[in-house]
From TrEMBL:
Keywords: 4Fe-4S, DNA replication, Iron, Iron-sulfur, Metal-binding, Primosome. GO terms for molecular function: 4 iron, 4 sulfur cluster binding; DNA-directed RNA polymerase activity; metal ion binding. InterPro entries: DNA_primase_C (IPR058560), DNA_primase_lsu_PriL (IPR023642). It comes from Salinirubellus salinus. Regulatory subunit of DNA primase, an RNA polymerase that catalyzes the synthesis of short RNA molecules used as primers for DNA polymerase during DNA replication. Stabilizes and modulates the activity of the small subunit, increasing the rate of DNA synthesis, and conferring RNA synthesis capability. The DNA polymerase activity may enable DNA primase to also catalyze primer extension after primer synthesis. May also play a role in DNA repair. This is DNA primase large subunit PriL. Heterodimer of a small subunit (PriS) and a large subunit (PriL). GO terms for biological process: DNA replication, synthesis of primer. [4Fe-4S] cluster binds at residues 236, 304, 313, 320. Residues 228-308 form the DNA primase large subunit C-terminal domain. The gene is priL. Its cofactor is [4Fe-4S] cluster. Belongs to the eukaryotic-type primase large subunit family. It comes from the Archaea. GO terms for cellular component: primosome complex.
Amino acid sequence: MRRLHARYPFLRASREAVQDAEVDLGQLVTEGGPAVERGRERVERALLAGTVASEGRSSTRAELLSYPVARVLVSLLDTPGAVAKYANAEAALAHARFTEDFDDDAQLKSTDRERLSLDRLLADFDLSGQVRPTGEGEFLVDVTAYLKLASALEGERWRLVARELHDGVVPVRRPELYTLLREAVRRRVADDLPLSVPEGVADALAGQVRTLKDAVADVELRATPDVVEPELFPPCVKALLERAPDLDRRGRFALVSFLAGLDVDTQDVLAFYGVETESDADSVEYQFERLADSRGAAFPPPACATMQAFDLCVDRDEVCADIGHPVTYYAERVERAGVAVDADAGTADGD
Ligand code: SF4
């Protein structure tokens, strides 16, 4: 198994690498281990964060085998929209990776990792004869292939009436070709999903499926309270706030994405952070506004399982035992505080 296969597990060559390794999926999921964990992470991150990029490191073998595991898990989830979100997230990561590889290739950058070439990706999708470079940063795409790939893309600019069409080919710029290839990946990933999963495999993955369902349910149920009561924040968030100026990338994302879902403005966030230097303020402000723009939808804060994996889950209390997401914790505490006030008022009224 090669690193290239692990980076691009949807390639035919990667599938063949898995077959050549004669891995028994049933045995793999029964034994558990890094590939199964990473498979769960793939699906969870796809549904909650819109990416399947790992937050940790895994071996080439675990990374490659996690892909078929993730396909099985997303099939077992039986959650509306899960397959579409998962396929989009796989395609988004592939797009980021092949863009990097192609650009490094074009600039003849030296690197010790094997890169995917544009020719190879086109060949893998049977597009070699249907996409030709013009030598001016443009490509001519056979109209049949263009229509197939562009039909599901958002935006009028992808409609054929908005494009030039000469002799059965559509000129596209390089970034547009990459978008079309991302769409090709998305289609391949979504192909055949959901799978029909043998009972033994489904039983072996029941625990992972439950964890995923809890994580998704937490997000669906999550109605981020529009009050800011820092004393009701979950213990992990309080700990992050205390260390705010010194957080690493993961800690900062966890904190800022949590705050971005609340009804707080940038100045409140800077006050939370206690930032002193202008450059710190700029960096926090930029990240917060980027996340707040999406109101937490595109970049929700990490679930408890992820927080635990990165040692960010600290000082757990009794509320933590019943929830799977820091935002759910906060919603629960706010609700409990509200219920207490209402109950008091009700008692007073009754008197
Ligand atoms: S269990 Fe969840 S909410 Fe509680 S401290 Fe850990 S990460 Fe935070």
